[in-house]
Amino acid sequence: MVVWTESELSIINSIFSSLDYEDIGPKALCRCLIVYPWTQRYFGGFGNLYNAAAIKSNPNIAAHGIKILHGLDRAVKNMDGIKETYAELSTLHSEKLHVDPDNFTLLGNCLTIEIAAKLGDGFTAETQGTFQKFMAVVVNALGKQYH
Amino acid sequence: MLSKKEKELIIEIWEKLTPVAADIGSDALLRMFASYPGTKTYFSHLDISARSRHLLFHGKKIVQAITEGAKDISQLTVTLAPLQTLHAYQLRIDPTNFKVQLFSHCMLVALACHMGDDFTAVAHAAMDKFLSAFAAVLAEKYR
């Protein structure tokens, strides 16, 4: 079982309550599709992803980015049961969407970068460490149902 | 690999960072130690607390080496030759992509904190590619 200190719980809650999901979500997903273009393979039905400009103005991608952030919110609201919270989503990503779980880390990295860009010096080394621990738990949970 | 535009963007970013080389480098190192504690084992002989003399000196050295490498990416193997030998035979830091990607990732985060919105997705992509190439060349002499 993952153990969270009071400080870590506080940091995670503080980060997420400072985020505008409608802004950060789309930005993180767009960044992922631009920096790691192979991730576009999962978004064939989303419309024009031809270049960075097209990706950034694609409304389907934006909507999906927001969806992802709300998905993360579920973990934030249930820090002691992240594995259980994501069991269904894990099965979905494995059986239906066929997403290589390595990609979860890539998206996590892009979200980290977006939060860093937003918070600047406020995203201290300690804050980053805690956030990365959280993302590692999330990524692990999402990969749990793959077989 | 890297387009002409990307190479120019990379040079532009690193030259702008030259005055704050020690800050950016030490920030990246500190982030790596906080997120991946195993990396601290390579620095047990130094004082790596925040803003320590060792950390700032070391951070500056790393950023200067990266800036030098950025000036002519096609010549990375030549530019990095002495550092290749150092890392392979003396320092023997585990070069598996994993470890070097840990530092690269933290360098990208340090850049994002410093540059905010200027660290666009396009700049991020170019920088990630460059740092990967840099890391690969640095590990070339290990075996």
UniProtKB/TrEMBL annotation, chain A:
Keyword Metal-binding set for record: yes
PROSITE patterns, per database record: GLOBIN
Domain of life, source organism: Eukaryota
Gene Ontology, cellular component aspect: blood microparticle; haptoglobin-hemoglobin complex; hemoglobin complex
Any Gene Ontology biological process: hydrogen peroxide catabolic process
Any one GO MF annotation of this record: heme binding
Keywords for the protein's UniProt record, in alphabetical order: Heme, Iron, Metal-binding, Oxygen transport, Transport
Boundaries of every Globin domain copy: 3-147
Family: Belongs to the globin family.
Protein name: Hemoglobin subunit beta-1-like
Protein source organism: Solea senegalensis
Taxonomic lineage: Eukaryota, Metazoa, Chordata, Craniata, Vertebrata
